[in-house]
Amino acid sequence: MQWEGEAIKAINRLPVAKRRKEKARIEAAVLKAGKDIVTLADAATGVQGIVNTATYAADGFRFDVCAGMGECPNRAHRHGDKGGRELSDRVRRLLEAENLGVFLKQSVKGPVRAHHAFRVSFSDCPNACSQPQIRDIGIIAAALPVLTEMACIMCGACENACRENAVWVDADRESSVFDYNRCIACGSCISACPTGKIGAGDSGYRVMIGGKLGRHPRLARELPGIFDAETVMFIIKWCLNAYRQKSTQGRRFADIVAEEGDALVSVLQKAIDNRKQLNTGR
Ligand code: SF4
Ligand code: SF4
Ligand code: SF4
After folding, report:
1. Is the minimum distance from the CB of 197 to ligand 3 under 6 angstroms?
2. Which residues pair with 137 in a beta bridge?
3. Looking at the domain assignment, is residue 132 inside a domain?
4. Tell me: the pLDDT tens digits for 135-194?
5. Which atom of ligand 1 is nearest to 130's Cα?
6. Which domain holds residue 2?
7. Residue 84 in contact with residue 124, Cβ under 8 Å?
8. Is 88 in the pocket of ligand 1 (CB under 6 A)?
9. Of these four, 24, 33, 96, 178, which has the most CB atoms within 10 Å of its CB?
10. 182 C-alpha vs ligand 3 centroid, how far in Å?
11. Ligand 2 pocket, residue 187 CB under 6 Å
12. CA atoms within 13 A on the CB side of 48
């Protein structure tokens, strides 16, 4: 079976003793998915759980993607063609290009440990299997449903598909109704609706920053909104820049977010808004 160059690089990070077995497992999964080429994302899903901690220290980062990336029936963008795989590959390439291993070597007195690594996680739906809530940056694919001009046949499929009780059929209005306070933008009702009455409104990614485990664990705080892929890349670059400027002695970005709190988030929010204004010309 053919392997993309980046995928070969990823599998070669494994200890030799584990490489052959893992390679066979990944190829079997790729074959089962009806494909004949192993991409970086395929390799990453297999490799992530067993890459030894020395790798995180050397690379200066750890990037986890959920196991179903691009294939899982639960992914938020399954109604369209916006799989998270392309964006997750871009995020990985960005992290590699940042040379965070070199940065940490210069910043940390003594040996760089795995716990110093900058952690990013990407999940293709709000089930969040790759635990984005406990990473320096977490990304979750999201699709917010909206009602369209199409007909509602009152079938109740949307209601049945929603595990949050965020959508129900309203007989008087002859349509479905949403409670957006409950909706977590999983996209299930969009896929379930047979007529297209429910379409994708804001479709993109939720982003959270500042999560970690360890001696002082905390959950990441979510930035308000659903962002397109370019804005996600902008946010990650902004965070990496802030991390480089503020981190000394291997201090985690999550600790910087915790210490600076609202002040840091508000500067980031302003940068996101300015970028949006520049792009829209407003
Ligand atoms: S996070 Fe969602 S898309 Fe990814 S493996 Fe879990 S259930 Fe599937
Ligand atoms: S209404 Fe329910 S099923 Fe639809 S996107 Fe929101 S949480 Fe998911
Ligand atoms: S919105 Fe779609 S899924 Fe929901 S009841 Fe109407 S036709 Fe059925």
Report:
1. yes
2. 120, 209
3. no
4. 999 999 999 999 999 999 999 999 999 999 999 999 888 899 999 999 999 999 999 999
5. 1
6. 1-51
7. yes
8. no
9. 178
10. 18
11. yes
12. 22
